[in-house]
Amino acid sequence: MKIVKRIVFGIIIAFFLSIIFSSIFPGRVKIVDKVRLFAQKPVIQWIGNIRLDNLPVVDSTKAIARVDIDFEELRQYLESIPPGSIFLTRTRSYAITEFIPGMWKHAGIFIGTKSRLAEKFGAQSNLFKMLDTLMSESEIYILDSEAAGVHVHPFRDMSNLREDSYLTNFTAFTLTGTIEQKRVFIEESLKFLSREYDYDWLTEDESAIYCSELIYHSLKKLGIEIKKRTTTLSREVITPDDLYNYMVKNSGKRENFVFRINICKENGRLKECQK
To answer: Which domains does the chain possess?
Structure first.
């Protein structure tokens, strides 16, 4: 009986050690990674649904200070952003954002309205046909990767904008290349549609995609490679901050990007913040 207990105990210890090894060195043993992610994914999803404003121990003075940007307030700025631009957001209250290093917490590709898309690329273009059935006539759309994976959806589905907004900062950049390069950028990003969200944050593994990873791979197809990484949880990831800093550094004349806007709210009023 003692021998059996020792064997069982040894198996349990080996299992937990393998999970720890998988966490520190992901991708080495695929089957162990799958077991770990089976438990890791729902935990992260659960944390992602926690809103700090709903916790009695959290002081919600930020909300009282009126820093949240409503969708209708932001709409006038969104209407000036060209389809295919890259946007970043900062959102308060969601617990999961506290685990994302840096100022910016999310990144995606701005698609805009169906009419703007047709005006920019042509109603008969393959790109427009790819997006046509995914968009209604009235909404403003984005393409990003979140808990539901990579998908096209209305802008207002983000940052709790349909209820009490948690959006505090919004910025956007546009590629300076030709219309053809911008088309390729969006089409390359659309190749990741329906790909699952990357709960393991492995930047070079395209089987699952996190938000700024979607931008990284799509830009890479244009020969624009972001090499600066942030080390977190023993992984070298491209955070929204890494993406933002790269675009700021490479924006302007004869550069890859044009800075569009950087919006925040102070004392209940929208203002354009510095880069």
So the answer is: 2-48 (no CATH), 59-272 (3.90.1720.10)
Q: What are the per-10-residue average pLDDT scores of the chain (275 residues)?
A: 61 54 64 76 83 61 68 93 97 87 96 97 96 96 96 96 92 96 97 96 93 97 94 87 97 92 89 81
Residues shown for the chain? 275
Instruction: Say what the pLDDT of residue 15 is.
Output: 47
Closest of 80, 69, 71, 68 to residue 261, by C-alpha = 80
Q: Which amino acid is at 24?
A: I
84 and 175 Cβ atoms separated by less than 8 Å: yes
Supply φ then ψ for residue 176, to 5 degrees. Answer: -95, 0
d(CA 3, CA 15): 18
pLDDT at 18: 57
Q: CA 225, CA 176: separation in Å to the nearest integer?
A: 15
